[in-house]
Amino acid sequence: MCTAKRIVILYGSQTYTSQEIAERIWRTTKILGLKGPVQALDDYPISKLIHEQYALFVCATTGEGEEPDNMKAFWKFLLRKNLPSNSLVNLKFGVIGLGDSSYDKFNFVAKKLHKRLMQLGAQPLLDTALCDYQHDLGHDAVLMSWLEEFYAKLNTPLKIDPSIGVTKFVPRWKTTIIKNNITMISEYGLNKDMYFGSTNTDHFVNPIYLEIESNTRTTHESHFQDVRLLSFKTVNKEKINYCPGDVFNIRPRNSKDDIEDLFGIFETHNIDIKPHYMLNIEEYHEGKRQFSFSLKLQSMNYKL
Ligand SMILES: Cc1cc2nc3c(=O)[nH]c(=O)nc-3n(C[C@H](O)[C@H](O)[C@H](O)COP(=O)(O)O)c2cc1C
Prior knowledge:
By secondary structure, the protein is α/β, with parallel strands linked by helices. The chain has helices at 17-31, 72-78, 108-119, 140-154, 183-186, 256-268, and strands at residues 8-12, 38-40, 54-60, 92-99, 123-124, 129-132, 173-178, 210-217, 228-234, 278-285, 288-296. The protein contains 6 helices and 11 strands.
């Protein structure tokens, strides 16, 4: 049996669930002694896939059986007719599908990906994990036992002691607070507004600033569920184009008052965190910096 030393964990995610699961698995692989990154499929340089020996794909299905936005380029490439049928002979893989069996095209993307990888010569370590949002235990119902089998197939350098479980936390991001020297970080780029800062890992196209126009409770006061109808308006008369099946992601913004209160609390408790300090966030893979992002703490609340 081969021993895996490195695995790439790649996700296609529309509303972050697959990303969160992929990152969780990535942390476990670090504990198991494996190298390799966790990335959105479209951020991974696809030409490198032919050199990889192990890969795990975590893919959601969205729309009517469609692939998430952050794997569209990857998928288009993989479907090229001129790819030789032995392109991926070195690759052993697993596919985890995140779906919802109330849709006709249940886990369509994961199933298609699994099939296409095999057409290109890659060998599956296991059948596709068909996780179902409708299950009482959610995606974990299928995922947990599937992963146990998958880790066993990888025959990793280190093993998880079942009596201890996974307790060690391996952070993906390194954060540092910079108090004064702004020029020191300017070479990495300075994002003035964290809500609109675009990065190479951010696939949400054309973010738009919206304000809540109304927020009305639609259920009766005596009902145990508080269901709301929220209506939004654009501030600069911008027009938003959308069509059925589109996904609308909302990034809530902290209110200016809340942020001022927070800095007030830091001050009262002599905690040295000031609005003009900079937060620098970096991502490392195998000692090399992959990504860096800086913002002024006061930009947590409003556009500068
Ligand atoms: C707009 C929308 C469309 C969806 N379409 C499908 C589908 O066609 N087939 C399926 O199996 N699941 C479908 N799902 C369920 C998602 O795949 C599931 O909720 C998954 O956990 C989302 O993962 P993500 O957060 O990584 O995007 C859909 C979900 C949404 C919100």
